[in-house]
Amino acid sequence: xxxxxxxxxxxxxxxxxxxxxxxxxxxxxxxxxxxxxxxxxxxxxxxxxxxxxxxxxxxxxxxxxxxxxxxxxxxxxxxxxxxxxxxxxxxxxxxxxxxxxxxxxxxxxxxxxxxxxxxxxxxxxxxxxxxxxxxxxxxxxxxxxxxxxxxxxxxxxxxxxxxxxxxxxxxxxxxxxxxxxxxxxxxxxxxxxxxxxxxxxxxxxxxxxxxxxxxxxxxxxxxxxxxxxxxxxxxxxxxxxxxxxxxxxxxxxxxxxxxxxxxxxxxxxxxxxxxxxxxxxxxxxxxxxxxxxxxxxxxxxxxxxxxxxxxxxxxxxxxxxxxxxx
Length: 326
Hints:
The structure is a single chain. By secondary structure, this protein is an alpha/beta fold. It has a single domain (3-325), classed as LigB-like (Protocatechuate 4,5-dioxygenase, Chain B, 3-Layer(aba) Sandwich). It is 34% helix and 21% strand. The chain contains ten helices and twelve strands. The protein has an eight-stranded mixed sheet with strand order 8-5-9-4-10-1-12-11, with helices on both faces. A two-stranded antiparallel ribbon has the order 2-3. Strands 6-7 form a two-stranded antiparallel ribbon. The longest helix has 25 residues, at 63-87. The model has no long low-confidence stretch (mean pLDDT 97).
């Protein structure tokens, strides 16, 4: 039977791959964002600034603090990359979200498994100035393809159906639509340059109502995913990857620490009780972690680090986190 040898999870924010001197461009983009979710309410920038003024977040928005955070997460990404290389997996099962990249309003599945021969990156023609510096890591610089794994992908589809998860399945991409940033980031930043490991992309619709799976549903999906992989009649070694999260585009340290604690303690009841209004916008990507936490219930979770990276006095930014299960 196939064996899951390691699970890893990392944030994939473009900020991770942006030079510190260009962080201010992210803050400028935040100031024009009228859809900033924070603790059940939606703000524009000025409203969020007023709501959080007593937190004195401006003290955490300096180039020195930015540089310290950047240096830390560069080291953490290298650590995760080495951890993955040392595990010597034959296949990666990557769980990420899609932000109108592969799936649009003509079809937005709650869960989807790709089991074609390869996935293809189709670069965005134009990006906002704040995102352009991270194109290489998140959005692609050229059309290129990565090997996928049809046999395991198909097996996962069949077994998940048996477990009560009616997954969408596809073996080719829609015309002109590239694989999403979750998977590009995994290839460009989590794999070593010498590691062209076949990938099974699993997409979770964390972002877009009305068919977002709940946090508990994502955790249970992970449990079924582990069962599916381990039932595969193969001696190949499989590693799991969660791509995305934690809180953004507004940093919520309290929520992030709670989610990490619940996953580490395997507290399914606690995960069930997280209000869905907390898991919206970019923060919803934490559900990708819940999938991997559910799939790794038999393993110990090690939290490498959590770095709240504020980029404006209103508290916009991203909670960066790095972890593994073994």
